[in-house]
Design brief:
By secondary structure, the protein is an all-alpha fold. It has a domain of 35 residues. The protein contains 3 helices and no strands. The longest helix has 20 residues.
Protein backbone atom coordinates (compact mmCIF):
# COMPACT_ATOMS: atom_id res chain seq x y z
CA UNK A 1 0.00 0.00 0.00
CA UNK A 2 1.44 3.37 -1.02
CA UNK A 3 1.22 6.80 0.44
CA UNK A 4 -2.25 7.44 -0.97
CA UNK A 5 -3.51 3.88 -0.84
CA UNK A 6 -4.37 2.24 -4.14
CA UNK A 7 -5.34 5.47 -5.88
CA UNK A 8 -1.85 6.76 -6.69
CA UNK A 9 0.86 4.48 -8.02
CA UNK A 10 3.83 4.22 -10.35
CA UNK A 11 1.78 4.46 -13.58
CA UNK A 12 0.28 7.72 -12.33
CA UNK A 13 3.71 9.16 -11.54
CA UNK A 14 4.99 8.23 -14.99
CA UNK A 15 1.95 9.86 -16.61
CA UNK A 16 2.48 13.05 -14.59
CA UNK A 17 6.17 13.17 -15.55
CA UNK A 18 5.32 12.74 -19.25
CA UNK A 19 2.74 15.53 -19.09
CA UNK A 20 5.22 17.87 -17.36
CA UNK A 21 7.83 17.06 -20.00
CA UNK A 22 5.37 17.82 -22.79
CA UNK A 23 4.17 21.07 -21.21
CA UNK A 24 7.51 22.59 -20.27
CA UNK A 25 9.93 20.90 -22.66
CA UNK A 26 13.29 19.35 -21.87
CA UNK A 27 15.36 22.59 -21.96
CA UNK A 28 13.18 24.32 -19.35
CA UNK A 29 13.10 21.48 -16.82
CA UNK A 30 16.44 22.31 -15.09
CA UNK A 31 15.34 25.91 -14.52
CA UNK A 32 11.98 24.72 -13.25
CA UNK A 33 13.65 22.32 -10.83
CA UNK A 34 16.06 25.05 -9.67
CA UNK A 35 13.24 27.49 -8.92
CA UNK A 36 11.31 24.77 -7.13
CA UNK A 37 14.38 24.03 -4.99
CA UNK A 38 14.82 27.71 -4.13
CA UNK A 39 11.16 27.97 -3.20
CA UNK A 40 11.45 24.94 -0.92
CA UNK A 41 14.57 26.43 0.70
CA UNK A 42 12.75 29.69 1.44
CA UNK A 43 9.69 27.82 2.68
CA UNK A 44 11.75 25.70 5.08
CA UNK A 45 13.56 28.78 6.38
CA UNK A 46 10.25 30.53 7.01
CA UNK A 47 8.83 27.51 8.81
CA UNK A 48 11.94 27.23 10.95
CA UNK A 49 11.95 30.88 12.06
CA UNK A 50 8.99 32.94 10.81
CA UNK A 51 10.07 36.14 12.65
CA UNK A 52 13.53 36.26 11.08
CA UNK A 53 13.81 38.75 8.22
CA UNK A 54 16.41 37.54 5.76
CA UNK A 55 16.94 37.27 2.02
CA UNK A 56 17.21 33.49 1.97
CA UNK A 57 17.63 32.07 -1.50
CA UNK A 58 18.26 35.38 -3.26
CA UNK A 59 21.02 35.00 -5.81
CA UNK A 60 23.78 37.57 -6.00
CA UNK A 61 22.98 38.01 -9.68
CA UNK A 62 19.44 39.06 -8.79
CA UNK A 63 20.65 41.66 -6.31
CA UNK A 64 23.25 42.93 -8.79
CA UNK A 65 20.53 43.30 -11.43
CA UNK A 66 18.31 45.16 -8.99
CA UNK A 67 21.08 47.60 -8.05
CA UNK A 68 21.86 48.25 -11.71
CA UNK A 69 18.22 49.07 -12.39
CA UNK A 70 17.93 51.45 -9.43
CA UNK A 71 21.02 53.51 -10.32
CA UNK A 72 20.17 56.71 -12.18
CA UNK A 73 21.67 57.08 -15.63
CA UNK A 74 24.15 59.91 -15.99
Amino acid sequence: MGIFGNTFGLPHLILILVIVLLLFGAPKLPGLARSLGQSMKIFRAEIKDPNKVDDVGVDETETATETKQTKPKS
